[in-house]
Amino acid sequence: MDDIDLSVPADLDTLRARYLAAQLKGNRREALRLIIDEGVVRGAGVPELRREVIQEAQREIGRLWQENRISIAEEHMATAISQLALAHLYQYAAFHPSNSKKVIVACVEGELHDFPARLVADCLDLAGFEVKFLGASVPTDSLLSMIEVEKPDLVALSVTMTFNASALRTAVPRIRAEASNGLPIVIGGHACQWAKNLAKEVGADGVGMSADEMVALARQILEV
Amino acid sequence: MNELVLHIESTGPEVAARVLADMYQNPFWDERFGARGRKFSAEDGQLHVSYLVEALVAQDPEVLSRYSSWLQSVLVSRGMCSRHLAENFERLAGALAERGYPGIEHAREYLQRAVDVLRYAPGPARELQDASAALIPCIAAALCARHPQWESHWGQVWQERCIDDLVYLLSYIADAVEQKRPELFIAHARWLSGFWERRGIPREHLIDTLEIIADEVERAGVSAELCTVVTLLMDRAKDVLCAMDPGAGKEQEMSP
Q: What integer pLDDT is reported at residue B144 of this predicted model?
């Protein structure tokens, strides 16, 4: 910390490039140091670091894999670093006061890409919601049990790969049929970009195309 | 539409397996990508069916088209060409059509659109894609004129294989041009020279083919940009082939 020039504010573009380089080398410590020492300590806000550095770096990681410039192992390694970075950022974030609303966030059964859902869970948490994050590939039966136990005010389901939309088509009607009456259900994830009518088709109450949009949607639906 | 979806879902694995078997009649696939490639190809075949189903359920062909466009960039960076993906969609359409499901024309329309999006946006790569149908017979004729002994040596099958090879070669070139990654084509040319040599076709055949491709592209009255980029690419590929050790160009597996 002694070496950090606090008079120079964080340059997020440069920080992202350096963070990405650390990710690709698998250098966890350097990646975290950059986020905290060069980001937080230099005055960058947690939401900006999450959005402009970590999330944008992940998009670049995805592009690099798509173009076969990095392997799937390298992509997993980089993503694991971002999961760790999000966890560390969490403790520096300013939490909004609790709004007493509970949200379950889960990836549908078969959906293994949980990073986007993790981002949503973190953002909702910081926005004052009580969040139960269930992670990747939650079996529908298990999701229903969790809804029964936790009695959330909102359920947010994530689907990244479009071929997992069938799991969404199973989960939403079952929640409607078997869970509390009128429980709002929102969806999000990359599949909602490819299948633009998915929310309407499954009868979801809304779709959030980013973590920030999901927070706004939750606030709107739950009137908080 | 629901009935069609149910039919495709229930027979999807069988249809995908049939498409895979057709694809693997070409020894190119096993030699180029090995057992791992076959596994990925099988998975991809199932995914094609899954995305087709999703598109039909959503009554939105763009679901399949977006998948096609995304997959194109994944596959061409891993040793395949756009034409390979187009063929798989065409095989799938054919295999489904044979079953005569009611409403199958929707599936065929969606698959055709998925093929159509593999045409690049306007630019040199698209220009080459559009010019390929006219270029191929000219290249084949020029090859035959330069080496009349090849046809007499290998027979009628040479003509047919020559045309097939040129279809793929031009697709690989267009992909490398679009991606601005000459190394994609050069890697393919390296491997192809070994593949042909193992079948008794000397490396000079491929070197000559690349030279004639550059000549015919220039003769075809295409844009100066396309002409330049193809000439440079063919020159680089020829240099690499000329510098290769004998027997080089073995199996290359797809990266994960």
A: 87
Asked if B217 contacts B226 with a C-beta cutoff of 8 angstroms, the reply is: yes
Extract the tokens encoding A29: 């410590």
Q: How far apart are CA B69 and CA B71, in angstroms?
A: 6
How far is Cα of residue A145 from the mean position of the Cα atoms in its chain? 23
Interface check for A169 against chain B (CB to CB < 8 A): the answer is yes
Task: Give yes or no for a contact between A53 and A39, defined as CB atoms under 8 angstroms apart.
Answer: yes
Q: What residue of B is the nearest CA neighbor of A167? A: B54
Per-residue pLDDT of chain B in tens (256 residues, 90 and over written 9): 788 999 999 999 999 999 999 999 999 999 999 999 999 999 999 999 999 999 999 999 999 999 999 999 999 999 999 999 999 999 999 999 998 888 999 999 999 999 999 999 999 999 999 999 999 999 999 998 888 887 777 677 777 778 889 999 999 999 999 999 999 999 999 999 999 999 888 899 999 999 999 999 999 999 999 999 999 999 999 999 999 877 666 655 454 4
CA distances from A169 to A2, A33, A49, A199, B9 (A): 54, 42, 34, 10, 15
Residue A112: name the closest of A46, A50, A163 by CA.
A163
Please name the residue of chain A whose CA is at the shortest distance from the CA of residue B49: A163
Q: Which of B203, B170, B6 is nearest to B83 (CA)?
A: B170
- The pLDDT of residue B252: 52
pTM: 0.90
Residues 6+ apart with CB under 8 A from B33: B40, B41, B79, B251, B252, B253, B254
Q: Measured between CB atoms, does B228 come within 8 Å of chain A?
A: no
Instruction: DSSP for B195-237, please give it.
Output: HHHTTT--HHHHHHHHHHHHHHHHHTT--HHHHHHHHHHHHHH
A111 min Cα distance to partner chain B (Å) = 14
> Measured in Å, how far apart are chain B's first and last C-alpha atoms?
36
Among partner residues B63, B77, B256, which is closest to A162 by beta-carbon distance? B63
Question: How many CB atoms are closer than 10 A to CB A161?
Answer: 21
| Residue located via tokens 């309407």 | A200
Cβ separation B78–A198 shorter than 8 A: no
Q: How far is B253 from chain A (nearest CA, A)?
A: 12
**List of chain A residues whose C-beta atoms are within 8 Å of the C-beta of residue B50:** 163
- Determine phi and psi for A187, rounding to 5 degrees: -130, 160
